[in-house]
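Need a sequence for this fold. Nothing fancy.
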């Protein structure tokens, strides 16, 4: 068995995260990168990370509720606006949502894409503050369903 192992029903796969909770400003999927909604106006609720963002603060985890019927209770059940979102950061391995049609190679660096997802980081052209994680697997996105990629978080160490 190869370590680290990807997970089919969870977000964190290894390491000791720093846990925190935020109020959602809008729908957020477990495995999304999140950032403050409008910090200049004092609004520190969170929203999914924006495309090419340098302001990502954490990753949304699955809810601690015991039933998968709750919002955020599984990888495919989004949190709604005003929900308390369980988030983490730290030197961990985890599953992040992959942006539609991305093809990622093992070892490739990743950065925020639209709606909290991740996409390939291009070293020659992208800003280094956008680099968020490194892929632990090779994966081509299935455009019909959500798909998560196994990564080592880099920026939150």
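Here you go.
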């Amino acid at each position: 068995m190869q370590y680290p192992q990807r997970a089919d029903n969870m977000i964190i796969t290894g390491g000791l995260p720093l846990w925190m909770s935020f109020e959602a400003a809008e729908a957020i999927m477990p495995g999304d990168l999140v950032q403050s909604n409008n910090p200049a106006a004092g609004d520190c609720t969170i929203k999914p990370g924006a495309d090419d963002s340098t302001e990502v603060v954490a990753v949304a985890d699955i809810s601690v509720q015991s039933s998968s019927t709750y919002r955020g209770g599984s990888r495919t059940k989004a949190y709604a606006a005003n929900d308390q979102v369980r988030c983490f950061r730290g030197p961990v391995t985890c599953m992040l949502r992959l942006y539609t049609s991305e093809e990622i190679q093992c070892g490739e660096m990743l950065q925020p894409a639209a709606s909290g997802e991740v996409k390939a980081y291009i070293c020659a052209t992208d800003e280094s503050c956008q680099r968020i994680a490194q892929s632990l697997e090779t994966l081509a996105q299935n455009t019909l369903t959500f798909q998560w990629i196994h990564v080592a978080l880099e920026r939150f160490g």
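For context: The chain has no helices and 13 strands.
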